[in-house]
Amino acid sequence: MSPSILLFLSLFAIADSQSFVGVNYGQIANNLPAPEVSARLLQSTTIGKVRIYGADPAIIKSLANSGIGIVIGTSNSDIPSLASDQNAAKQWVNTNVLPYYPASNIILITVGNEVLTSGDQGLVSQLVPAIRNVQTALSSVSLGGKVKVSTVHSMAVLSRSDPPSSGSFNPVYQNTLNQLLAFLKDNKSPFAVNPYPFFAYQSDPRPETLAFCLFRPNSGRVDSGNGKLYTNMFDAQVDAVHSALSAMKYDDIEIVVAETGWPSSGDSHEAGPSVENAKAYNGNLITHLRSLVGTPLIPGKSVDTYIFALYDENLKSGPGSERAFGLFKTDLTMSYDVGLAKSSQQNPPPTSPVTPAPSTSWCVPKAGVSDAQLQANIDYACSQGLDCRPIQPGGVCFEPNTLQSHAAFVMNLYYQIFGRNQWNCDFSQTATLTSQNPSYNGCNYVGGST
């Protein structure tokens, strides 16, 4: 068996055995399916974790015995009482955790949402005491090591994030962060943050920024601090948080992405919202997580990532995009397909016609693609952890020594390893699927059935 096939099989064995993909189940809508219906929908997917913004008993109960990890939260308005009264924290746990655990697999409690950047200094000062009291309440009922406690941060908690190696927290939050990070480390709880490449693109709406944000082939950005190459904004944002934690000597704290996503529609003046971009971002993000490549500063592992959101929420305020982040519509059809269904039989009909891939297919460049684009495709694919040695001098696929031949080999390897979905053979619309095996002499192209 060739090294490429071994890599292909080992990556899928690992990715199938672990779940890094979660979803946010927002409820700011008046047309949502019943919780038990949503629970069945979730169980038809490979989504392994769900985050809700409160502790809705109907939702928690509906997920009982599903194995799906559940993140529940206290509201910001709960924080003062939780901070000042240990009995209030105990009552919160007795009401929202004990009746459902362990049948409902509650894994994390988030105390408040984006408190540090809320501008409410009274709330900020009460955050860590509230977290400690909830932890004490869990420990009093023997759940201290089983259900974690944390809070969720906006990326605005950083004062610097570019380049990623220079990531640092805003000094305004220093005192609270010192207390919080010490708590997280002592209790092996995660640092939860909401990175949104969508907003980064809106602040810099150039084509090259869009490719960088959507995980599409691009020339990448070199971190001037450490020389590492970044090929997508998600990794850059996560690593900026890692650098900020490292600067405070807490680089061993796990990072969890509590929210990230891309809207499928928006107002006419908004840059970026579209079905195509949302499908590209979320589909490529899921593929990236399943690859276990990790980030340049956290290689070889994937951060738990909760995609925003399960459904569109028609009562949210703000621009039109705020109401269009859903992976699913409230009639349970997909907004677009990002490969989350457990089987093709469970896929609702696609929202637009898709040309079916051949049953056994290979991904190759289209005719007429420029050398610059072929080289960009090679650089991108090889930066994603693939074994590109076969196209290097002395490798079995080095001859013929042409960009067309080398690109064909690595583009196909990327397609095969990262899911064999149509969007894994896109490369900025410079690739196509073929049923003709391109292997030659001793150069064997991995092939797979779709």
From TrEMBL:
Enzyme Commission (EC) number: 3.2.1.39
Any Gene Ontology biological process: carbohydrate metabolic process
InterPro entries to which the protein is assigned, alphabetical: GH, Glyco_hydro_17, Glyco_hydro_17_plant, X8
Keyword flag Isomerase: no
Matches recorded under SMART domains: X8 (SM00768)
Signal peptide interval: 1-17
Main location: secreted
Keywords: Disulfide bond, Glycosidase, Hydrolase, Secreted, Signal
Reaction equation(s) it catalyzes: Hydrolysis of (1->3)-beta-D-glucosidic linkages in (1->3)-beta-D-glucans
Pfam family, one: Glyco_hydro_17
All residue ranges annotated as the X8 domain in the record: 361-445
Family designation: Belongs to the glycosyl hydrolase 17 family.
Protein name per the record: glucan endo-1,3-beta-D-glucosidase
Organism of this sequence: Pisum sativum
